[in-house]
Design brief:
Length: 191
């Protein structure tokens, strides 16, 4: 069993120094914000950097805690910001690494080396439309296949798509008027 130290073994500035070395020429910026180390690197460097910060004995960032994306539709050529957050349980450390991508440009998948990336990448793909090259099962995870668009993009219509409402109570007595959208869909494990 791992017993993490009560206090982090490195300061956020020391974490950034080590990440900068591992990122090399892909390093773009770094800062400490509210005690968290935040680095910005070129998108192509993410897979090698993820392995390097995992294998560095002083860092040991072996847990990808979260991956999310932010959509900046007016920032041409870098519309998406991917935000990776790693934790080192062994050393009680945290780092956030950001990168920018053009709309439609694929990010390299980390799902093979970091198991948690599997569902995290699928969520970003589903809700933002960012593809992950090399993902073993890249498909929607929250919305049904065939759903039009990606609802967390800032250019997504506020009123939503023309989505069927099979559970809408639309008469005076509150009865359902099904539209058949979910017809033929069975939950996994149901026979």
């Amino acid at each position: 069993m791992i017993s993490p130290p009560a206090a982090p073994t490195l300061s956020p500035a020391e974490i950034l120094d080590r990440v900068r070395v591992h990122a090399g020429s892909a390093w773009q910026a770094g800062r400490v914000d509210r005690g968290d180390a935040i680095a910005e690197v070129a998108a192509g460097a993410i897979p090698a950097l993820a392995r390097a910060i995992r294998d560095d004995q002083a860092l040991r960032f072996d847990q990808l805690v979260d991956l999310t994306a932010v959509h900046w539709p007016h920032d041409g050529g870098r519309e998406f910001e991917l935000v990776y957050q790693w934790r080192s349980v062994r050393h009680n450390l945290f780092v956030r690494i950001k990168t920018r991508l053009a709309d439609g440009a694929p990010a390299a998948s980390l799902a093979v080396e970091f198991g948690s990336a599997d569902f995290l990448e699928r969520e970003v793909y589903d809700l933002m439309g960012v593809p992950f090259a090399g993902h073993p099962n890249l498909r929607r995870i929250l919305l049904p296949e065939g759903y039009a668009g990606h609802p967390l993009r800032k250019d997504y219509p506020v009123e939503g798509p023309n989505f069927p409402e099979d559970a809408r109570r639309n008469d005076l007595f509150g009865r359902l008027e099904p539209d058949g959208f979910w017809a033929g869909v069975r939950e996994q494990g149901a026979s």
